[in-house]
Design goal:
By secondary structure, the chain is an all-alpha fold. It contains 35 helices and 5 strands.
């Protein structure tokens, strides 16, 4: 068996082993949600096709070799999310349109089939970071427990609070309505939602578990992409560095938790990694490839801004380093033509990086244009313009920063930063880098050549510290920082492994620390994710699990079964709208909730009911502790007498349990399939579809 065939066989066996680990943890019986993985895989395969087309459009396809497939997968997720956002904006968000989008991507993938087969058959380049198949396979084998955690968590319905509020909740509302919407009563509707919409075809075709499985596959893509980044961007790194860097980055409690909680930060990290790869690419000797990499980097930055608003903070640091790298590469080239002046070289370098900004705008501006048109504030809810008469989001952020989320602004905070990154601030959170980075990172300082090769990524990470410190200063909020530190830690471990017996001991210690981290993940995730283990071992039904994760789930299930074609008003004081399969008048508590507006402006309970009818509501879900929830967040909750009289004004409940009751309304005018979310009722800027 030749070496390329042996490598492919090893990779295939590794994938089979990873697939069997979660089944073994559940008694060799497939968990209910595991059937969603093939649906997610088809969605990602379609994304690869879209990404290949985009690379051709950007002029980068022919400039790259086999690494283009990794970046195609990533860019294709951006294209898929953008396509679904466009469809949602014109009220064509449905299972049928999702099938069309995915099918188009698969057709594009088939059209690139010959290139795919050719790249797979091409033997890998000798030397560099990918030269040790044995050690590379060893590092990836160590990741099997982390892969098991991620895949098993993805097999359960998403249950983390943020997912219930909007990562899953809003795509489900879009599906119920057939389109997107923005309301000033729920600032999550104004968030960039590229990650959620990129996974939405899986939601529409396979349900919530398939939606979560896309995030698990993004974790796998992170493992591969980190390895490719090290091989291509750091070719002088020691053998086995690609696997070591992938091991460190993907084994972090942060990286294991993000796909489990269906957070968009994992996709933002992938955009950050591609941006770093592009920064290195604009310093390549071939002038033609520099422009292609600049355009790819601009696309990554644009998709990043459409994924997380905080990505706007990283545009200047990445752009500055990209210009510096491009300028240095131009001045260091041996060119037979007369050398350009320093000023000319700098202007040319600026043009090579600034010019592709149009590409970034094309892919990243849509959430901000939407907010400007519908809410009058492109950066809502993070901008300086307040969209309601309650506490501004910026005020809330400043309050957090003044307390336990203090920014990095003084000496003691800087000294505490390593511990904060490694262990986190909150013992109930998994948003930390963990222990393995601490093992590998100091060792890299002894190897100057590798450190110099990684310098662009480390400089970008250093420059992002200041804007990152002005936010919540959580590790996941700065993907450039945690990725650069993770890669550096992996390179340090690779150097240690190459150092003989002592280095092997350090690697063994890192493996032990990784085991500690995964135990950490098991313990904390089980609490944060509402104990999915019992569902996956089939000791609890799906309905029982959801009822434990979301107290309103039984009421939502009743509404989904009995209120098809209607619209529900949630008088619950609770923003967790996931698993509600009919349109809803949604609101949350950081901006003034619609419930608070109705209670404050109506003179009586019957007046509240009339306002609801005018908004097109056909049903009301009334939570037992709704008013108390509003008051805990600083809202008045309206007049006590009005609240007490509301159940009687709504009539006899159709459904009631200890947490909520469901009432039916007869609308004063024929209601459409969607509620009138555009009525602001004096609470701020109006929103239109």
């Amino acid at each position: 068996m030749d070496e390329p065939t042996r490598r492919r066989a090893t990779a295939l066996l590794g994938l089979v082993a990873w697939a069997w680990v979660p089944l073994g943890l559940t008694g060799l019986s497939a968990p209910p949600g595991l059937v969603a993985l093939p649906v997610a895989a088809v969605v990602v395969a379609g994304a690869v096709g879209f990404g290949a087309l985009l690379l051709r459009l950007l002029g980068a396809w022919a400039r790259l070799d086999r690494e283009r497939w990794v970046w195609a997968a990533l860019l294709g997720l951006g294209v898929t999310g953008s396509a679904m956002a466009s469809l949602a904006g014109v009220d064509r968000f449905s299972t049928g349109t999702a099938v069309v989008v995915v099918a188009a991507g698969l057709v594009a993938l088939v059209a690139h089939g010959r290139a795919l087969v050719g790249d797979l058959r091409r033997p890998p380049a000798a030397g560099g970071a990918g030269d040790s198949a044995r050690w590379g396979a060893g590092w990836y084998a160590l990741l099997a427990p982390a892969a098991a955690l991620v895949v098993v968590r993805a097999a359960a319905p998403p249950s983390f609070y943020d997912a219930l509020v909007y990562h899953l909740g809003l795509p489900m509302q879009f599906a119920a309505r057939g389109g997107s919407f923005v309301t000033p009563h729920d600032h999550y509707t104004a968030m960039p939602l590229l990650a959620e919409l990129a996974a939405s075809p899986a939601l529409l075709m396979g349900g919530p578990e398939a939606h979560g499985a896309v995030y698990a596959l993004e974790w796998l893509l992170l493992v591969v992409a980190v390895g490719v980044f090290v091989r291509r961007a750091l070719p002088t790194a020691p053998a086995g560095s690609a696997g070591a860097a992938g091991f460190v980055c993907a084994s972090m409690p942060l990286a294991v938790f993000l796909p489990s909680a269906t957070k968009p930060d994992l996709l933002a990290a992938l955009w950050a990694l591609l941006a770093l790869r592009a920064v290195v690419g604009v310093g390549a000797p071939a002038a033609a490839s520099r422009g292609a990499w600049a355009r790819v980097g601009a696309a990554a930055a644009g998709f990043g801004c459409a994924t997380k608003t905080t990505f706007l903070l990283w545009l200047v640091p990445v752009g500055v380093v990209a210009v510096a790298v491009a300028w240095r590469a131009r001045r260091s080239l041996v060119d037979p033509t007369p050398p350009a002046t320093t000023q000319g070289a700098l202007l040319s370098s600026l043009g090579a990086v600034v010019g592709p900004g149009v590409v970034g705008l094309a892919f990243g501006a849509w959430p901000y244009v939407r907010n400007a048109v519908r809410l009058g504030d492109p950066l809502y809810p993070f901008g300086p313009w307040r969209g309601d008469d309650g506490p501004a989001w910026l005020d809330h952020t400043r309050a957090l920063l003044a307390g336990d989320a203090r920014p990095v602004r003084d000496l003691d905070a800087l000294l505490a930063l390593p511990g904060q990154l490694a262990f986190g601030r909150d013992p109930t959170s998994n948003e930390a880098l963990g222990l393995v980075v601490v093992t590998g990172l100091p060792l890299l300082l002894l190897h100057r050549a590798t450190l110099r090769a990684l310098a662009p990524a480390l400089v970008v990470a250093a420059l992002t510290l200041l804007p990152w410190g002005a936010t919540h200063a959580l590790p996941r909020y700065d993907p450039f920082l945690w990725l650069a530190l993770g890669v550096a830690g992996g390179l340090g471990l690779a150097h240690a492994r190459a150092g003989g017996r002592a280095g092997t001991g350090i690697v063994a210690a890192a493996a032990v620390l990784a085991g500690v981290q995964w135990h950490w993940n098991l313990a904390v995730d089980d609490s944060l994710l509402r104990g999915p283990g019992q569902l996956l071992t089939q000791r609890r039904t799906r309905a029982e699990f959801l009822a434990g994760a979301l107290e309103l789930a039984p009421a939502y299930a009743f509404v989904g079964e009995h209120a098809r074609g209607g619209c529900v008003f949630l008088a619950t004081g609770d923003a967790r709208i996931a698993y509600l399969e009919v349109p809803a008048l949604v609101s949350e508590v950081y901006t003034r909730p619609l419930l608070d507006v109705l209670l404050a402006e109506a003179s009586s309970a019957p007046a509240v009911v009339e306002r609801l009818r005018a908004l097109g509501a056909t049903h009301v879900v009334l939570g037992r502790s709704a008013r108390a929830r509003l008051q805990r967040r600083g809202w008045s909750g309206g007049d006590e007498a009005v609240w007490q009289a509301l159940p009687a004004a709504l009539g006899a409940p159709l459904y009631k349990d200890e947490d909520a009751a469901v009432f039916a309304l007869s609308p004063s005018s024929p209601a459409s399939a969607t509620c009138n979310v555009g009525v602001a009722l004096g609470a701020g800027p109006s929103s239109t579809r």
